[in-house]
Automatic annotation (TrEMBL):
Family matches, as SUPFAM superfamilies: RmlC-like cupins
Domain Cupin type-1: from-to ranges: 107-240
Protein name: GL25 protein
Lineage, uppermost ranks: Eukaryota, Metazoa, Chordata, Craniata, Vertebrata
InterPro entries, A to Z: Cupin_1, Dynactin-associated, RmlC-like_jellyroll, RmlC_Cupin_sf
Superkingdom, taxonomy of origin: Eukaryota
Gene3D superfamilies, per the entry: Jelly Rolls
GO cellular component: Golgi apparatus; plasma membrane
PANTHER family: CUPIN TYPE-1 DOMAIN-CONTAINING PROTEIN, DYNACTIN-ASSOCIATED PROTEIN
Source organism (scientific name): Anhinga rufa
C-alpha cells in the first residue's frame, strides 16, 4: 500500500502504458516495437474491460514467471529513495517530527541524506515530506508556512485541527484515521491529539526549497515586550513570564 502526493493544483492527468499502447495505431506500434510476427502479433493484444493499473489479472501467477529487479547503484538510488522511518527524530514539547526535505546548507545530514536533499532541490516542483507524531493530549502549536501548502493524512489516533484566519475567525474540526487535511500557504493552524493513542500523520509540503515555518512562540517572543504591553494593555514586566522560544 502506497500513500502518494502529487504537486499539482490542476486535475491530475495520467497516461498508463496499456492506455498509450491501445491508443497507438497498430501499424505504428508494430514499426516502433518490431515484435516477431509484426502487426499480426500486435493484433493479439486485447484491451481489458477493467483498468489494469488497479485490477490485476486473476491468472497473474500464470502470466508472470519472474518479477525480480536488479538493484541500481547506491549513489543513483539515493537521489530517489529516503528511509524516512529510520531517519533522525526531531522532538518538540508534545511530539516528534521526522523529515525528508531539502536543507539549504546540509547541516546535520549524512552523505545519503545530502544526495536526496540536493536531488529534491534540482526540481522546480517537488515536495517536503514528514511524519508528525503527537502524544496523547499533546499539541502541535499554532504556526504557518511562508512558502508551502500543507497536506496531511491521518495514519492513527484522533485529534482536533484548528485553522486561524487573518480575519480572526477560527475553525475547529475533529480528525481521525483516513482523513486528509489541507492548509494553504500562510494559513495559521494547529493540531492536538485527543485520544489515548498517539496522533500520527504523514505530511506533504509543496516546496522544493527549505521549508520556512513561523510558530506562535517564535513570533510572540520575538516581539519586543514593550510592543506587547501596548497591544495587550498589560504591564511590560508580565511578558517576562513567557519562556523563550526553543530553536
Amino acid at each position: 500500500v502506497f500513500l502518494l502526493f502529487f504537486t499539482t493544483h490542476e486535475e491530475l492527468l495520467t497516461l498508463d502504458v496499456d492506455d498509450a499502447f491501445f491508443s497507438t495505431p497498430e501499424d505504428i506500434a508494430a514499426r516502433a516495437l518490431k515484435p516477431k510476427g509484426g502487426v499480426n502479433f500486435i493484433r493479439t493484444f486485447k484491451k481489458q474491460a477493467e483498468d489494469q493499473a488497479i485490477n490485476l489479472p486473476p491468472n497473474l501467477d500464470e502470466l508472470v514467471q519472474n518479477a525480480t529487479y536488479v538493484q541500481s547503484p547506491d549513489n543513483l538510488v539515493w537521489q530517489y529513495f529516503y528511509n524516512l522511518k529510520g531517519s533522525k527524530e526531531y522532538h518538540f514539547p508534545g511530539g516528534t517530527f521526522q523529515w525528508a526535505r531539502y536543507r539549504r546548507n546540509g547541516t546535520g545530514l549524512n552523505e545519503t541524506e545530502k544526495i536526496f536533499s540536493e536531488s529534491l532541490h534540482k526540481h522546480e516542483n517537488t515536495l517536503t515530506l514528514a511524519t508528525l507524531r503527537i502524544v496523547s493530549n499533546g499539541l502541535g502549536q499554532p504556526h504557518f508556512h511562508f512558502n508551502a501548502n500543507e497536506m496531511g493524512y491521518v495514519m492513527s489516533g484522533c485529534g482536533q485541527a484548528g485553522v486561524i484566519l487573518s480575519s480572526g475567525v477560527t475553525f475547529n474540526f475533529n480528525i481521525g484515521i483516513g482523513d486528509v487535511i489541507f492548509f494553504p500557504v500562510g494559513t495559521q493552524h494547529y493540531l492536538k491529539s485527543i485520544c489515548d493513542e498517539d496522533l500520527l500523520l504523514v505530511l506533504a509540503y509543496s516546496t522544493g526549497n527549505e521549508l520556512e515555518t513561523l510558530r506562535m512562540n517564535g513570533y510572540f517572543r520575538g516581539t519586543a515586550d514593550h510592543i506587547l504591553a501596548q497591544l495587550f494593555s498589560k504591564e511590560q514586566s508580565e511578558f517576562k513570564e513567557f519562556q523563550k522560544a526553543a530553536k
